[in-house]
Amino acid sequence: MKAQWVAAALVSLRKGGVGAVRVERLAADLGISKGSFYWHFRNRGDLLDAVLAYWSREMTDVEFERIEAVNSGLAGRLLALAQDVLEKGMGRYDPAIRAWARADRKVAAAVAQVDRRRVRALTRFFEQGGFGAAEARTRARLFYTFLLGEPQVRSPARDAGELERMVKILQA
C-alpha cells in the first residue's frame, strides 16, 4: 500500500506540482481512508521524502543498472536509454521534480546528486566505448542535456530514425 501512496503522489506532483500532493486528495484518488496514510507515513513531508527517494532510485539507479546490462555496445545502450526516457516515459517525472527543486533546497540538493550520478553513469558508458575521460564526460553531458530537454521541445518533432542518427553521431 505504501507504494500506491507514492505512485499517487507522483501522479499528483506531475499534474499539479508539489502543492497538489495532499493527503486527503490522494486518499480520495486511491479510494481509501486517510488513516491508511498514517500507517505508512508520519506526515506529508515523510511522503514527499519517499517520492523523492523513489524517483532517485527507480529513475536513476534501477534504470542505469538495466541499461548497463544491455550488451550491444555504446550505441545500443544510448539508444535503449533514450527510448526509455523519451518514448517509454522514464523521464516523465523529471520536469515536476525539477520545478519542485526550484522552491526547496533539500530537493535541489537531491536533484543535483541525481544529475551527478546520471552523468557519471553516462560518462562510464562513453569511456567503455573507447573515449578518453574528458571527451566521455563532454559527450555524457551533451547526451544528458538532450534527454532532459527533448521532452520540452515539441516542435519540430523528431523524424523517424533521427534518434538513431543522433546516437550514431555521439558515438563517432
Please describe the topology of this protein.
Elements: H1 2-16, H2 23-30, H3 34-40, H4 44-68, H5 73-86, H6 94-101, H7 105-128, H8 133-149, H9 162-171
Helix pairs in contact: 1-2, 1-4, 4-5, 4-7, 5-7, 5-9, 6-7, 7-8
CATH class of the domain at 52-171: Mainly Alpha
Mean pLDDT: 94
The end-to-end span amounts to 47 Å
Task: Please give the number of β-strands.
Answer: 0
Low-confidence stretches: none
What summary fits the major beta sheet?
Answer: none
What does this structure look like?
With about 170 residues, the chain is mostly helical. The protein has a domain at about 50-170: Tetracycline Repressor, domain 2, CATH 1.10.357. Helix content is about 75%, strand content about 0%. It contains nine helices and no strands. It has helices at about 1-15, 25-30, 35-40, 45-70, 75-85, 95-100, 105-130, 135-150, 160-170. Helix 6 (about 95-100) packs across helix 7 and helix 7 packs across helix 8. It is elongated and about 55 Å long.
In short:
This protein has 172 residues and is mostly helical. 74% of the residues lie in helices and 0% in strands.
Spell out the key features of this protein:
9 helices, elongated, 172 residues, mainly alpha
